[in-house]
From TrEMBL:
The keyword Heme does not apply. Specifically methylates the N4 position of cytidine in position 1402 (C1402) of 16S rRNA. GO terms for biological process: rRNA base methylation. Its EC number is 2.1.1.199. This is Ribosomal RNA small subunit methyltransferase H. One of its GO terms (cellular component) is cytoplasm. It comes from Algoriphagus hitonicola. S-adenosyl-L-methionine binds at G35, G36, H37, D54, F76, D97, Q104.
Length: 303
């Protein structure tokens, strides 16, 4: 397994520029994956150090042999705890390139892809307790309805949730192929793959508690950043991007920006980039995965 085919890093230059790297600083790549972004950060470090997190043990195969790098096989929601373990209280910059890697999608046994035959798994952390199979075969109808509607924006979420519950009573779901064959009946004609992708996205977000992990991580990231330290987050769907954007612009996930007596915004971060940075046409042509990427860059407010 080589890093080149594991994952092509998206907006590499924009991410490292966003971090405004101090060669002697301490950095965190929260989503190490194939290590593309990490290697680019290491190239700019001198006496600095980089901590690379990934909850997927497959990422271990890509760890560089470099004394300035430490791999942390953990969920990024526990950022503070693990940094403390290494005696790190504050860092100069944090990068998160959310979602799953091409390796995870392309490996049939991981169950992320609508195109391959595999178990309905979808766990990024292979030791986690709940897989997509458990979600489909045990969640009650109301919960399935909510997940499909909220995380997949599936239009007929209620009908589909009902059908899942009655189907599994006859034969429980186990393979991706069996599940997509079942989904076909509910998909709009000619848009089957888009529909499958929406349903799979919803399951994946639930299995990995992606929204919960993102909220916890963002709050911890704000705490561990030095004043003026950079937060660089790349997301691939609007639910994630909304959380990141709201925290940067409004200082909270929900609700409006508050101001102090003098009219200064009360928020722990301030935007560095105007709006979201997106990939250019050339990159999208070479790497279609870059199409949906939205990059937001912020710095910790100096008190
Ligand atoms: C889009 S890929 C990152 C690719 C990487 N930037 C590169 O250049 O190869 C996302 C990676 O983050 C990991 N990941 C996603 N959510 C995570 C979480 N909550 N905690 C730890 N790792 C996570 C996934 O396992 C995956 O390997």
């Amino acid at each position: 397994m080589t890093a080149a085919v594991y994952h092509i890093p998206v907006m590499l230059a924009q991410c490292t520029e966003g971090l405004a790297i101090d060669p002697n600083g301490t950095y965190v790549d929260l989503t190490f994956g194939g290590g593309g972004h990490s290697r680019a950060i290491l190239n700019q470090l001198d006496r600095g150090h980089l901590y690379g997190f990934d909850q997927d043990e497959d990422a271990l195969a890509n760890v560089p042999d470099d004394p300035r790098f430490t791999f942390v096989q953990a969920n990024f929601r526990d950022l503070k705890k693990y940094l403390r373990l290494y005696g790190v209280k504050q860092v100069d910059g944090i990068l998160a390139d959310l979602g799953i890697s091409s390796h995870q999608i392309d490996e049939p046994s991981r169950g992320f892809s609508t195109r391959f035959q595999g178990e309905l798994d979808m766990r990024m952390n292979q030791s986690a307790a709940v897989s997509a199979k458990e979600v489909l075969n045990t969640y009650d109808e109301g919960k399935l309805h909510r997940i499909l509607g909220m995380y997949g924006e599936v239009k007929n979420a209620k009908t589909l949730a009902q059908a899942i519950v009655s189907e599994r009573n006859q034969s429980p779901f186990s393979s991706t192929e069996g599940f997509t064959a079942f989904l076909k009946k509910f998909a709009p004609r000619g848009k089957e793959f888009k529909y499958f992708a929406q349903v799979f996205q919803a399951l994946r977000i639930e299995v990995n508690d992606e929204m919960g992990a993102l909220e916890e991580m963002l709050l911890e990231a704000v705490e561990v950043l030095k004043p003026e330290g950079r937060l660089v987050v790349m997301s691939y769907h609007s639910l994630e991007d909304r959380l990141v954007k709201n925290l940067i612009q409004k200082g909270k996930f929900h609700g409006e920006l508050e101001k102090d007596f003098y009219g200064n915004p009360i928020r722990p971060l301030e935007p560095v980039s105007r709006g979201a940075v997106v990939a250019d046409a050339e990159e999208i042509e070479a790497n279609p995965r870059a199409r949906s990427a939205k990059l937001r860059i912020a710095k910790k407010v100096k008190l």
